[in-house]
Design brief:
The chain is mainly beta and 689 residues long. The protein has 5 domains: 3-7 and 316-491, Collagenase (Catalytic Domain) (3-Layer(aba) Sandwich), CATH 3.40.390; 33-189, Beta Barrel (OB fold (Dihydrolipoamide Acetyltransferase, E2P)); 200-299, Immunoglobulin-like (Sandwich); 513-600, Immunoglobulin-like (Sandwich); 607-687, Macroglobulin (MG2) domain (Immunoglobulin-like), CATH 2.60.40. It is built from 9 helices and 47 strands. The strands form 11 sheets. Strands 1, 2, 24, 25, 26, 27, 28, 29 and 30 form a 9-stranded mixed beta sheet that branches. Strands 3, 4, 5, 8, 9, 10, 11, 12 and 13 form a 9-stranded antiparallel beta sheet that branches. Strands 35, 36, 38, 39 and 40 form a 5-stranded antiparallel beta sheet that branches. The chain is globular and about 85 Å long.
Length: 689
């Protein structure tokens, strides 16, 4: 079969957010630019509508821009004689190559709003061009259906209120050049007739739904409308903590009736830019009228997605370095800062619980640029290279391959990380002061993006969308780990083309720690055991416990022994049902290191067998204790009673997450049976497509 390779550069600049000491909340990669400053700096302010787009290379073919044709509806500041203007945005598509920058303005045909423009040095032909001042903050986007206007840090009460505030600051009046009926109605010049009752959401399932992995959310209630029409579902935007909402692409809607909607929980979306996060979602019908969910939907993690040709894709991690994964290389200026290197490597180690395969090379890299050059560089920026207010940024580069006319496989070919050289960093292991930013926390967040995880709204997780000065978030949380494990597992399955898959890298124990296990003895008692060699420099062990996987609290200490190999045990007689443990290893010179985290479940949880996601697409994961799987076999049976899938298990211990490949099965309902001489488990599995 003929295949072709897409040398697609998808430079997704995934970011760590921060909150300045004198600010409230900051959106990812952005610090607020006052509206007064934006209005003052703009040489042309128009209300307009995006008519068309065209991607093009810069003069030296190193990057891609997009030329956006904007139809002018109103003007406020500056003059323009033509009915349209051209606004240049960074990123875009030319043929089979693409460049995308997160936290950079992206437009789409049909969008309307207020553009705060300045002249652009980037030309598209011989016509004058503009760019918006302060990128995303230079565009106030309209939603005529809901009569809302939004920008990254705020939502206006109505379209008219956004017009009025901008006009008041500019000291001018809007001049109409062309009328748009839908905007005029939303702005108060006409009434949008409501003939349908407000949607009422009575229930939804599941209550916990990861984004970007195909999880189907079933919403029940009434007044949704007999068909979708112009209706939509919206989720809180994890990129700004739920200040705005994001809508799934059209391909994510499965069914829509007056009393039930089935939709996939999305990850990355373009309009508006963001990803789905935890919170109360809402349904808007064709009328339009909007109803809000009675309780929050929990989105524990999101797998980074991107759309091409109307199809949503997830990228795999690969064997990039020939040793099963990725090797980061330090620039000379980064390598010279030994404290920064130590913090970065601790952050790297914190993700090892997901068995991702990455490491660092000795010595300085031969290059010191952020570019698609085959080097996974870690560096400080040079002066103002990073935008003002950005602490750190990770660039992921993707390529894709596949048969002509068939589905493509996407994979990460390179990751580059840059940190602000002018930030007031605390490199650790000490905690940051009020005026400092914690470097290890920012590095762990950026590496989470390299793991292909998007933002979440959960302050316990490294992938939480924002971090403040003096805050510490160095330890990956349980949802970070679950999401990372999903990406890792997804990356282990060979594709029909492209590089070989990544090879897992088990989390290494500290040099002297030979083993560390936990076992539940009864409902409230857990026994921890560990074995250690070469303890001459060890002062003792602090046992730490967490109910959520982060933060940890010390619950006891054990003094080190004197023999060559020592075995220790510790009883926790007040253990919660589901609990995490780790050892803090105390060196005589005052330094510390940590063991891997051990999770001990309740008796009920240890006996659970689940398939997740369910409904599934091409893959699902079997979650079960290894003892239950020992000697067991799994069968999938179709509705005709025929066994269409089988697998046996042996030699397993501890909690297992095993990927099941369903790609050869048609969509439909299946029944699973997992049985051994000890126990039998049965249930239903739905393959959605």
């Amino acid at each position: 079969m003929k295949k072709h390779l897409l040398n697609l550069l998808y430079a997704s600049l995934l970011c760590c957010c921060f909150i300045p000491a004198n600010a409230g909340t900051a959106s990812c990669m952005l610090t607020p630019v006052p509206l007064g400053q934006r209005v003052q700096q703009a040489t042309l302010i128009v209300e307009g509508k995006v008519l068309a787009q065209q991607g093009f290379y810069d003069a030296i073919r190193k990057t891609i821009f997009t030329s956006n044709t904007i139809q002018i509806l109103k003007t406020l500041k500056g003059t323009v004689a033509a009915p349209t203007i051209t606004i240049i945005t960074e990123g875009g598509t030319v043929g089979n190559q693409m460049v995308l920058h997160t936290s950079t303005l992206q437009l789409a045909p049909g969008q309307t709003g207020i553009f705060l423009c300045i002249p652009s040095d980037v030309k598209a032909g011989n016509i004058p061009t503009f760019m918006v001042y302060s990128s995303q903050q230079g565009f106030i986007a309209y939603d005529p259906v809901l009569n809302e206007a939004r920008e990254p840090f705020r939502k206006y009460t109505s379209i008219e209120s956004s017009r009025g505030e901008v006009a008041q600051i500019a000291g001018a009046f809007w001049k109409t050049k062309l009328s748009d009926p839908l905007i005029d109605k939303a702005g108060g010049k006409g009434a949008i007739l409501k003939t349908t009752a407000t949607p009422i959401i009575t229930a939804f399932a599941p209550a916990i739904a990861p984004g970007g992995i195909g999880t189907l959310l079933t919403i029940t209630g009434f007044n949704f409308g007999a068909s979708q029409g112009t209706g939509f579902v919206e989720f809180p935007n994890a990129n700004d903590g739920g200040l705005s909402f994001v809508r799934p692409p059209a391909s994510d809607y499965i069914t829509w009736t007056d009393n039930q909607i089935v939709v996939r929980v999305p990850s990355s979306v373009v309009l508006p830019s963001g990803c789905a996060g935890t919170g109360n979602f809402r349904v808007t019908n064709t009328d339009p009228a909007t109803g809000i969910s009675p309780t929050p939907l929990i989105i524990p993690y999101t797998y980074t997605n991107f759309e091409s040709g109307g199809v949503t894709y997830r990228a795999d991690l690969i064997n990039d370095n020939g040793a099963g994964g990725y090797t980061f290389q330090y620039s000379s200026n980064f390598l010279a800062n030994t404290a920064a290197v130590g913090a970065f490597e601790r952050a790297l180690d914190s993700w090892c619980l997901t068995q991702i395969n990455w490491n660092t090379a000795a010595g300085a890299a031969a290059v010191n640029v952020i570019a698609s050059d085959g080097v996974n560089i870690v560096r400080f920026d040079n002066g103002t290279e990073l935008p003002v207010g950005v602490l750190g940024r990770l660039s992921s580069y993707y390529s894709g391959c596949g048969p002509v006319g068939g589905p493509f496989n996407w994979y990460v070919t390179e990751m580059d990380v840059a940190f602000d050289d002018g930030a007031n960093w605390q490199f650790g292991p000490a905690l940051p002061s009020f005026s400092q930013y914690d470097f290890e926390s920012v590095a762990a967040h950026e590496l989470g993006h390299g793991h292909q995880l998007n933002h979440v709204i959960n302050t316990n997780d490294v992938m939480h969308y924002a971090i403040a000065n003096s805050q510490v978030r160095r330890t990956v949380g349980p949802d970070d780990i679950t999401g990372g494990n999903y990406v890792t597992t997804n990356s282990l399955i060979p594709n029909s083309c492209g590089p070989t898959p990544m090879i897992v890298q088990p989390c290494p124990l500290p040099v002297r720690l030979l083993s560390f296990i936990g076992k539940r003895l009864d409902v409230g008692t857990v026994e921890l055991q560990w074995q250690v060699a070469e303890e001459e420099d060890i002062d003792g062990y602090a046992i730490e416990r967490s109910e959520q996987g982060s933060p940890f609290t010390e619950i006891g200490r054990v003094t080190s022994g004197t023999t060559a190999i020592n075995t220790y045990s510790f009883l926790d007689i007040s253990a919660p049902n589901d609990v995490f443990y780790r050892l803090r290893i105390l060196e005589k010179d005052g330094s510390i290191s940590y063991s891997a985290t051990v999770r001990v479940r309740s008796f009920d949880m240890a006996n659970e067998v689940t398939l997740f996601p369910n409904p599934a697409q091409d893959r699902t994961m079997l979650h079960a204790d290894g003892e239950l799987l020992e000697g067991a076999s799994l069968r999938l049976i179709n509705t005709a009673g025929k066994t269409v899938f089988s697998r046996s298990f042996s030699g397993l211990s501890g909690m297992q997450e095993i990927t099941l490949d369903l790609s050869a099965l048609p969509a439909g309902v299946y029944f699973y049976e997992l049985g051994s001489n000890r126990q039998q488990f049965r249930g239903k599995l739905v393959k959605s497509r």
